[in-house]
Amino acid sequence: MDAQQIIFQFIGGIGIFLFGLKYMGDGLQKAAGDNLRSILNTFTSTPLRAVLAGAIVTALIQSSTGTTVLTVGLVSAGFMSLTQAIGVIMGANVGTTITAFIIGLNISDYALPIIGAGALFLFFFKNQLITSIGQIIFGFGALFYGLDLMGSGLEPLQNLQAFSDLMLWLSNNSFLGILTGSVMTLILQSSSATTGILQQLFSQDAMTIEAALPILFGTNIGTTFTSILAAVGASLAAKRTALAHVIFNVFGTIFAMVLFTPFTMVLNTLTNTLRLNPELQIAFAHGLFNLLSVGIMIWFTPQLARVVSKIIPGEEDTIEMYEPNLDYSLVQRSPVIALDQTKHEIIQLGQFVLEEYDTMFDYYLKQNKKSYDHVLKIEDVVDRIDIQITEYLMYISGESLPARNSNEHAQMGEIGKYLERIGDHTENILKNIEEVNAAEKLQKKNGNSDRKNMLYNENLLELFNLVKQNVQEAMQAYETESHSIAGKVIKREKDVNNLEESIRSTYISNLNKGIGKPSDGILFVDIVSNLERISDHSVKIAKHSLGIRQPFSKRIINKKGEEFVKV
Q1: Which sequence spans correspond to the domains of the chain?
Q2: Residue 187 has pLDDT above 50, yes or no
Q3: What's the chain's Rg over C-alpha atoms?
Q4: Are 199 and 279 in contact (CB under 8 A)?
Q5: Vertex 316: Cα angle to 302 and 220 (nearest 5)
Q6: Run of H or E residues at 556
Q7: CA 182: distance to chain centroid?
Q8: Which among 25, 27, 202, 563 is most buried, taking Cβ atoms within 10 Å?
Q9: Which of 223, 218, 219 is nearest to 174 (CA)?
Q10: Do residues 228 and 312 touch, judged by C-beta distance below 8 A?
Q11: How far is CA 433 from CA 210, 216, 535, in A?
Q12: What contacts 291, CB < 8 A, 6 or more positions away?
């Protein structure tokens, strides 16, 4: 076999191997549906569970890189904390060893029939699940066919003196072996591919175990480059997650090299005891290495989180990670206590809405991008909490409540919606301000700068502050059941309405004087209208605190003469 044939067969083999690996992983992911994200998002409450979740997802999608990138995305979106993410990354390193064990099965002779069977499922069935299974089978066969081609292409290397000298050099220089594994994984974008090449070389006696292990250890470092790229431009927490991935894999490699001699002895003992073939010997080495890394580092997860937080300083935006504390087991056992939990979460929802309003007002004053993005993040959280509260109240509505609690139940549903609408109006104002600022820049470019004077005036600033007071005190009245504070909100509403009318009149007067354009005033009027509606919803919350707005309910008297209300 000439050099060209060796290169072509190796490149073609590795291409088919990578295609089979990805195709199989995509099929597994389709078959699993949304469960992969749910596993990562739900089963990560403790470090051990996070490790198991990471291992399971990686085994399913056949890519530790894919799991790590998904984890970085979840952290960036606020669905996972840094500590949870570190556990998942540890588990991903364990899960990726499954591919090496699959390769160790050495069933390349059956690769073509497996591809044929997968093709039957793909082309003769229309059911989504069956075609996903076909994709898994086809990818599985392609993986082994690629390995077979790759192995055939690499076979002549064992007879080349230059290659033998290179392997001997790597055996005596562990650092170069680690670097080789890292670079190969970076180029191929798959630690499984690098491991597969090692398995083929080792099975042909083209290299010793002393040369193979450092390269194998280096594959873990190579996988970190993708997570680093995924974190570029992402949130602070995502950057810390990527750094934690780097630190964990680098320290894991250092531990393995420090324990290289006993590690090799244990591996040789397992090989002799279990009579492992060369491919499985590499697979067991990969598994032992990652289990050793996780076994040591899992105890230092909190410390690792603190280290990366010091290396990448800053305040982590944890608002998106907030989850309402709504215990569904209480609904039947004690619906009254369940209502107490709901009230606590509505108060918390009010705090988020107030923060959203404050941040929007900050954007109005300073026009900084950070405030703009933060408002949108809070609005997503407000919507999510509102949905969860509504769902929880629906479960409670299936229970019989004492009369004194029934109105409270209906009140909570309405207040939750008022708060959600305040959030919507706040987002509307934010986008109006953004459009006004964009238009103002265009006006300045054209030599007309009167828009800013019209938008940023004392009356509008006063309206912003009055509306904020109403939102703040409406929630205080609800939380403390204070009639006096609720009364202040209702009384202040008159000032809000009067000021709104004054601002509109001034705006029309300015237009008549030729200040500004009628078309530009739509955004200005929208801002004022949204502020007035926010104040209206605040008043409705205050009226609930006074007991003015009572929902319809059906009263039931039981045999004991106790009064209940079915809501």
Answers
A1: 3-311, 333-546
A2: yes
A3: 32
A4: yes
A5: 50
A6: strand 554-557
A7: 27
A8: 27
A9: 218
A10: no
A11: 65, 55, 19
A12: 94
Q: What is the Cα 115 distance to its own chain's centre?
A: 35
Ramachandran category for residue 367: left, alpha or beta (phi over 0 → left; psi -120 to 50 → alpha): left
With a CB cutoff of 8 Å and minimum separation 6, the contacts of 322 are: 348, 352, 381, 385
Q: What is the CATH number of domain 333-546?
A: 1.20.58.220
pLDDT at residue 554, rounded to an integer = 44
- Range in 177-191, 290-304, 443-457, 527-541 the model is least confident about: 443-457
Return the ∠ at Cα 529 (arms to 524 and 530), rounded to 5°: 100
Give residue-wise pLDDT tens across range 245-278. Answer: 899 999 999 999 999 999 999 999 999 998 888 8
How far is 357 from 541, CA to CA, in rounded Å? 16
What are the contacts of 179-183 at 24+ separation with CB within 8 A? 179/218, 180/214, 180/215, 180/218, 181/214, 181/215, 181/216, 181/217, 181/218, 181/219, 181/221, 181/222, 182/218, 182/219, 182/221, 182/222, 183/218, 183/222
- Could you give the CA distance from residue 187 to residue 194 in angstroms, rounded to a whole number? 10
How many C-beta neighbours within 10 Å does residue 188 have? 18
The helices-and-strands tally (H runs, E runs) of the chain is 25, 3
Lowest mean pLDDT across 197-211, 345-359, 457-471: 197-211
Tokens of 352: 């988020």
Cα separation, 304 vs 70, whole angstroms: 20
